[in-house]
Amino acid sequence: MNKPQAAANSSPTPGSATSSGVDSLEDQLIALWTGHRQKIMAITALVLVALVVSYVWAYVSERQDAAVSRAFSAAATAPELRSFIAEHSGHPLASLAQLSLAHDLFSEGNYSEAATAYDEAAGNLSAGPFAEAARLGSALSRAAGGQTAAAEAALRQIGDDAQVSVTVRSEALYHQVNLASIAGRMEDVNRLSDQLLQLDPSGAWAQRALLIRADQLPTAAESVSPSPAGVLNIQGVP
User: Fold this and answer.
1) CA nearest 129: which of 97, 168, 158?
2) 223 pLDDT higher than 50
3) What count of other Cβ atoms lies within 10 Å of the Cβ of residue 50?
4) Is the separation of the CB atoms in 96 and 126 below 8 Å?
5) pTM score, two decimals?
6) Rounded mean pLDDT of 72-80?
7) With 80 as the cut, is the pLDDT of residue 100 above it?
């Protein structure tokens, strides 16, 4: 009498169809490849092309940035800086070149062109120390060029701007104190120096402002017999 076949023989083995007729994962992948081989190869090719393009672009950009950096370092005179700015307009280093040009123009006493160059640099530079330096340079160029009202307005905006660093705000306030002193506006000298002391009481600009403020106070002799020359005004402390 024959023994009945073991029930285990009916269990599916890896790679074979299940009792419900559903293909295994391997069969599904083979069917997917067979039916969509061209699409899969096309997508793979596109990914490879994108990777190659990305690599080439990064390589070229790096080489170009290196060349621009060398050109920026080589630009020393005003004509060279102007040429660099025109050739690399839109590049971050072009904005720094504009700032450098503005410094040179200010040093040469060309305050009108310096103010314009500072304004252009400030408009292109990202927020930070360089942009702050450009804004301050623009205000000081106008002050040096005799545009006192415009200079004081610009300095006031910088001094009141909480987004600007304390050091630059302090310097802006100091120059406001100085301009008020030159104009003989003692109330403004006191008010602005108090504002500066609140902002940075131990800073160098606050100490310089106190010297200007102290120089405005009349001496004992002057209080009895005022000098015809009036109160002494100073332009700044070296």
Assistant:
1) 168
2) no
3) 10
4) no
5) 0.63
6) 80
7) yes
